[in-house]
Amino acid sequence: MKKLVLFFVLSTIAIIGMAQNKAIQSVLSYTTFNVPGDKPYIETAIAFDCSTVEYRQFEASKFKATVEVTTIFKQGETIANFSKIALDSPVVTDTAKIAGAFIDQQRFALDNGEYVMEMTVKDLNNPQQMPFTAVQTVVIDFPSDAPSVSDILFVDSYSKATTTSEFTKNGFNILPRIYSFYLADVNSLTFYTELYNIDKIYPTEGKYLVNYYIKSYESSAKMKDFNFIKRMDVSNVNVLLNTIDIKELPTGNYYLVVEMRDRDNKLLASNSAFFQRYNPGCEMHLEDIASTNILNTFASEINDIDTLREYIRCLNPRCSEAERNYCDNLVKTDDLKTMQQFLYTFWSTRAPLNPKDAWQEYYAHVKMVNASYSTKTKKGYMTDRGYVYLKYGTPDKICEEPFEPGAYPYEIWHYYEVAGQHNKHCVFMSQDMVTNDYELIHSDIIGEVNNPRWQMMIYSRFYGPDYTGDIIDQTEAPGAWGTRAGDLYRNPR
């Protein structure tokens, strides 16, 4: 994942707006590309869930939905680019069988710089619905005189282009994959990216190396059998459109990484994109722990088996799914040596130059969360707040509201950048003032619990535990004096 000050990779924003009897649900993805000699551009793709928009008849036995999409890019008070369109869904003849999604894709030319992107959606067939606006900071920074890699676009399907449309890129019609989540029945991952300015390093003749691979999100280790090298012709723009067989990729969180390398294999530029895989039929083959030599390592000095068990348990927030299952079984044994070998392997994989320092730094955070979040029955790292802190790091903002009128005590954590995503939140709530055990009730981080009705849970203290709202899809409690959760979520301070 590129840092915020460089490139954005594929990011996802969930957009949910209120309707009288349903909630519009849509997902926006965006990627940035360069045009050497001209302006870069951002490409947005928004998918609307057909079952959550209002369909109206416009001809005999023909129905369609129409959604208005307004997109604005601002720098301060200056509007750099904008569009306002009315997007029609595919026509249906039976509104009882509506399913799937329809997609709009647009491109906006923008100079290098930082922008605030505002996207507002409104169901034009439902005048009682209030428009809903999502706001996201976007950074575009493509150097003009050095190699760079565009964002990585996950692809649902592609074909040779015979005509030009908003889906056409470099001779291909490309349908983007909005959701970077791959279920077990999907055995291939197709992606598109562009590579720029290699001709600034080499003459226009010859070859250079492109390395692309999948690595674990938790450990940053390259996945065995998912590392590829391709030789490409020198050009000011190269296109990489490839498919990876992921049939044997286990369940987990991953990055797809694309690197430009010179003829001596020196890294010139790279980019990455976060994705998730669910593949319960595929087992991850961990390294052969028994063959790990731990002589004179920090792990060999830990000889108390109960201490080792505790050390391994506290690794849970940083474990992959396969490692977590392995740990659960390992701590049930009395195998001291294997525990030592696992602890050393865990950290040497993540920090090969100095696994001891990495372990000690992590354990210092464990002791901190134990001091801050422990309850009478749980150590801090076992609580939801401790787990999130150890997994994702220190939040950029924490809004604590232990005494808001009519609300259960709650906290909202805001991350500017986390897990390949931007501007993400975690909401914790406690139903008492005694145990210090705050439950994670909602997060917009991919893979965590997601509950659009989290505000209803917080304010059920005032409205009662059985309160469901006046609307079946209501996500915000009616305004009352002192209610701040929604505002703090949108505007952390």
Summarize the structure.
The protein has about 500 residues and is α+β, with helices and mostly antiparallel strands.
Tell me about this structure.
This protein has helices at 305-313, 321-330, 336-350, 355-373, 384-392, 454-458, 460-463, 485-490; strands at residues 11-18, 23-33, 41-49, 56-59, 62-64, 66-75, 78-88, 101-109, 113-123, 132-140, 148-149, 153-160, 168-169, 172-176, 181-182, 188-196, 207-216, 222-233, 237-245, 252-261, 267-277, 397-401, 410-418, 421-429, 439-443. Strands 11, 12, 13, 14, 16 and 19 form a 6-stranded antiparallel sheet that branches. A 5-stranded mixed sheet has the order 15-21-20-17-18, with no helix packed on it. Strands 1-2-3-8 form a 4-stranded antiparallel sheet, with no helix packed on it. With 493 residues, the protein is an alpha+beta fold. Helices cover 16% and strands 39% of the residues. It starts with 10 loop residues before the first strand and ends with a helix. The longest helix has 19 residues, at 355-373. The protein is built from 8 helices and 25 strands. The radius of gyration is 25 Å and the shape is globular. β23 and β24 (421-429) form a beta hairpin.
**CATH class assignment of the largest domain:** Mainly Beta
Helix content: 10-25%
CATH H level of the largest domain: which superfamily? Immunoglobulins
Secondary structure category: alpha+beta
Specify the number of helices. Answer: 8
Coarse shape:
globular
Give the strand content.
35-45%
Radius of gyration: 25 Å
Mean pLDDT: 86
Any idea what the CATH architecture of the largest domain is? Sandwich
Q: Give a count of the beta strands, DSSP E runs of length 2 or more.
A: 25
Structurally, the number of domains stands at 4
- How far apart lie the N and C ends? 26 Å
CATH domain fold name of the largest domain? Immunoglobulin-like
Largest sheet: 6 strands, antiparallel
Pick out the low-confidence regions: 1-21, 468-474
